[in-house]
Amino acid sequence: MHLTHRLLTHQLKEEKWILLNTLSGAADVVDRKGYESLQRMKEGDFFSVDKDFVDVLKKRAYLFESKSEEDELLRRMLEQNRKKIFNGPLKTVICPTYACNLRCTYCFQGELHEKIPISLSLEEITLLFQALDRIVKKNEAAGAEIQLFGGEPLLSSTQPLIEHILKLASERKYPLGIITNGVNLSKFTSLFRKYPGCVKIMQITVDGPAHIHNKRRKFVSGAGTFERIVKGIDFSLDSGIAVMMRVNVDMENVHFLLELADFIKEKGWNEKEIFRARLAKVETHGGEKNSLFLEYTLTEKIEKLKLNEPELKNIFSDMRISRTLGHLLKIIEKDYKSYEPNFYYCEASSTGIFVFGADGLLYPCSETAGNPSFVMGRFVPHLELNEEKFNLWRNQDVLKIPECRDCSIALLCGGGCRYEAMRVNEETRTQLCGIRKKQIEDYLKLHAQDFSLELQSS
Ligand code: SF4
Ligand code: SF4
Questions:
Q1: Residue 437 belongs to a domain
Q2: What does pTM read for this prediction?
Q3: Mean confidence (pLDDT) of the chain
């Protein structure tokens, strides 16, 4: 027999241990007898273990007849997961420009905005859609899903470009989402009305109540943007376009989430079906240890907030700051039936993303747009794709990445951010994985007792 190594155990008080199965999503509490049986099984002794206990462990996918039986189950689950995510439309991002009208304090694209702003021309957008048609055909994809990104896609100067994109996308019935800072939305009213139903969703960032937001998300002049963005959100919701409000969280604004939630309630946004708000970590993807520590500290703070102010969960539909800890919470929240392991970290590493840069070049994820080290092809003057480079990104499941294959937390982590992995060296990467594992241990140390109480009372 074979005991999965994808099992996390942690000792609770009163001679109890919690078991979290990252493969099946099962969460259980065992007594000393059960824990000692597990220890014996880890050492290869399956014969002295109680038969009923063995049956339960088998049923909940902790225990297998052999390692190959576990591998086979994992392969089947991966295949199912692939069927679900790979049969959809092609994921694409279009950056009509790298210019931006804001200077947010934490922007990772700072350099791109400072250089001479680059934008696509109308002709280049036509070439872009010709290239997109070829890629969709070659991949036998069910159409394409487009996200407009930048810089800031909605500038006065980009209006003719956005109109051309809307025209070409709606001719193909490709749905569009726009990642915008939201300050210019009302200037685009007539354009969105001209192509009804084409724009499905806006992602707009609000970093807190006005006094915090305005310190972080500012115009080039230094003036705050809060009021303009609030009008933008109102405009979008009134036009029937869904809004995903993103809150970029760090230590500066985490304490103001409650105040922001009150503002959302005052506006009545949370009562609208087409409004959602979610938290996200301010990302650097630079492989800094500090960034991971921040991720952990923020998760801690947000978990405490959720405990003290349970209503926050009704305002923010997704409060996960760390993908790995967030996935651990899925097991703990006992979503056993719908639990799926994290085989991939993000879309860039699963289906792959085609990012059409404002410079006529192709990139593998939005964060890499404009960075010469990550170019994987071009669409101006015609389509050229370096498949070898693209294949370093897409379809990178945890069973394929050699370092991740046998990692005990792989099915929580999903293999990590490809962008980060390519920016840091092997030593740094190993250190980061060590920190991730330690964070899970620390997290369990702090919270396992609460989880077990929930499990026992359910
Ligand atoms: S080896 Fe590192 S990146 Fe890979 S799954 Fe484990 S923690 Fe994640
Ligand atoms: S590879 Fe990293 S930076 Fe790129 S989309 Fe995925 S998580 Fe984001």
A1: yes
A2: 0.91
A3: 91
